[in-house]
């Protein structure tokens, strides 16, 4: 398992969410949900920013009997924020109010890490060269009007080497890459 994996679910047009659409854009299927359960059972620490923490801890509080939320509650979580205050209410959550890039450099020595949402945190970690794997699951919808949380805006240029792919439920495409941050387009001398 890589030391740090950025893990996104996105629409075909690159959004992480959309107003009025259900979770997973209403397209999750049994094969994908089973894979999430298996993948979530692996031992890693989850990294997130304050916005994702607020959203997910709220889901966990509202759905304490949901197996997926219970699994997230049981995981080790590191939350990067200058606005949240200790103690964090969501079980197994640690607050880091200092520089996220420096903290993640140190955390990588202690075991595998993954992100949950947190678009700007992921952008910072990728730009700093800390991301070992970049995985996306593409849902076959375009949310040009209702989409929010554009994933790749303000990202650096990145070359991606495909190391794994998988089709779930005949419609969801998982792509797993090793990223290389570029100084500029290939051949530009940058």
Characterise the protein shown here.
The strands form two sheets. The chain has an eight-stranded mixed β-sheet with strand order 5-4-3-6-1-7-10-9, sandwiched between helices. It has a two-stranded antiparallel sheet with strand order 2-8. α2 crosses α3. The protein has helices at residues 30-40, 50-62, 67-74, 100-107, 119-127, and strands spanning 4-11, 15-18, 45-49, 76-80, 93-96, 113-115, 133-139, 147-150, 158-168, 172-181. It has a single domain (4-181), classed as 3-Layer(aba) Sandwich (Dihydrofolate Reductase, subunit A), CATH 3.40.430. It has 190 residues and is an alpha/beta fold. The chain is globular. The longest helix has 13 residues, at 50-62. 26% of the residues lie in helices and 32% in strands. The mean pLDDT is 90. One of its GO terms (biological process) is riboflavin biosynthetic process. Residues 2-172 form the Bacterial bifunctional deaminase-reductase C-terminal domain.
């Amino acid at each position: 398992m890589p030391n740090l994996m950025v893990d996104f679910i996105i629409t075909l047009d690159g959004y992480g969410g959309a107003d009025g659409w259900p979770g997973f854009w209403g397209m999750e299927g049994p094969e994908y949900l089973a894979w999430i359960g298996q993948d979530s059972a692996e031992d890693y620490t989850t990294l997130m920013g304050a916005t994702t923490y607020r959203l997910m801890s709220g889901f966990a509080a509202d759905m304490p009997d949901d197996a997926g939320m219970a699994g997230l509650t049981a995981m080790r979580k590191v939350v990067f924020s200058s606005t949240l205050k200790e103690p964090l209410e969501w079980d197994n959550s640690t607050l880091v109010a200092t520089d996220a890039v420096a903290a993640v450099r140190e955390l990588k020595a202690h075991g595998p890490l993954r992100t949950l949402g947190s678009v700007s945190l992921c952008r910072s970690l990728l730009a700093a060269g800390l991301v070992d794997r970049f995985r996306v699951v593409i849902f076959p919808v375009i949310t040009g009007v209702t989409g929010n949380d554009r994933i790749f805006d303000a990202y650096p240029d990145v070359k991606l080497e495909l190391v794994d792919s998988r089709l779930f439920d005949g419609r969801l495409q998982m792509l797993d890459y090793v990223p290389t941050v570029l100084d500029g387009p290939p051949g530009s001398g940058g």
